[in-house]
Amino acid sequence: MRDTQDGQDETAMTSGTTGPGTTSAAPAHPHDRRGDVLEGVARTLVDGVDVLGSLSPSRAGDFMACPLLFRFRTVDRLPEPSSPDAVRGTVVHKVLEDLFDLPSTERTPSRAADLLVPAWEQILEAEPEIAEMFGAEGPEVGAWLASCQESLSRYFALEDPTRLEPAERELYVETLLDSKLLLRGFVDRLDIAPTGEIRVVDYKTGRAPAEAYEAKALFQMKFYALVLWRTRGVVPAMLQLIYLGSGEVLRYSPDESDLLATERKVEALWKAIVTAQETGDWRPRRSALCGWCAHQSLCPEWGGTPPPLPEREPVATLTDGLTPEDTD
């Protein structure tokens, strides 16, 4: 279901109202076959837990889009320059997080505008090199900040934050599957109705995808829903993607079968990652996304040559250096 900024929909989790969807306790062992997934692969410790490896929705998305991109980011750990668009996402997320620190009556467009420059200055203080993206080689800072303000204005056309009291913000979530694969990531916002229904919310500062690509966009949200189901025993009633670039909201109500299918998909992805690691066959996949890739000069699809693979490490060391921005 998709909505635009022509009207707000606060029916799911606001002021004591509840949303659609069913809640269900997760079974202790949803299916018995998972114990033999990747049998024989060496395990290691991640954050003190014995695991096969760990996966976030962003890294899973990398492998689905292009196995070579996954390799560059996770195996080679090649640095990638930031961009004005990426920093806009960080700043807008920060403003929305700070907005919900305020009393509900103060969560107004003008107050959000007041928070914008301090959020930008705080991020710039933490990463001074960001300033090099602006000026002669990039957009003028004033115009760029105005684009951040436009994103915030679209937010208020889509939601009324005075009617919302999020249960969690920038929430780190993780769960260990029976196969010992660790799933983890950061959720922008979690709303919980008085009756227990859960809504998972993610902000995107880009534009909403075309309908043909909605399923790909929803994979991240189903990933989070799977983790929450396995940790809290409740299937989230609503998954909500807020696209501030185009002023649209994409909503989806999952059920147990959706989440079991997501679990199977994640485990199949991990098995493919293991195969690529063991064979060294990280194949590039040319697509429209190549135009956004920082590693074209190293990609065979664009006449480049990847660097030699680093010394082979156990598959379980392919873990995410997660930050809240990692999932946006």
Write a structural description.
The chain is globular. It is 34% helix and 16% strand. The chain folds into 2 domains: 2-6 and 34-73 and 169-280 and 303-327, Alpha-Beta Complex (Lambda Exonuclease, Chain A); 84-163, no CATH class. It has helices at residues 57-65, 67-75, 84-99, 109-126, 141-158, 214-232, 256-279; strands at residues 2-4, 44-46, 49-51, 53-55, 168-176, 181-192, 198-204, 238-243, 248-252. Helix 1 (57-65) crosses helix 2 (67-75). The strands form 2 sheets. Strands 1, 4, 5, 6, 7, 8 and 9 form a 7-stranded mixed β-sheet that branches. The chain is of the alpha+beta class and 328 residues long. Strand 5 (168-176) and strand 6 form a beta hairpin. It starts with a strand and ends in a 49-residue tail after the last helix.
Straight-line distance between termini: 21 Å
Please give the largest β-sheet.
7 strands, mixed
Strand content: 15-25%
Shape: globular
Mean pLDDT: 84
- Helical/strand content category: alpha+beta
Number of strands: 9
Architecture of the largest domain, CATH level 2? Alpha-Beta Complex
**SSE order, one letter for each helix or strand:** EEEEHHHHHEEEHEEH
Question: Please, how many domains?
Answer: 2
Q: Compute the number of helices.
A: 7
Q: In terms of per-residue confidence, which ranges show pLDDT below 50 for 5 or more consecutive residues?
A: 15-43
Question: Which terms would index this structure?
Answer:
single chain, globular, 9 strands, two-stranded antiparallel ribbon, Lambda Exonuclease, Chain A, alpha+beta, 34% helix, 328 residues
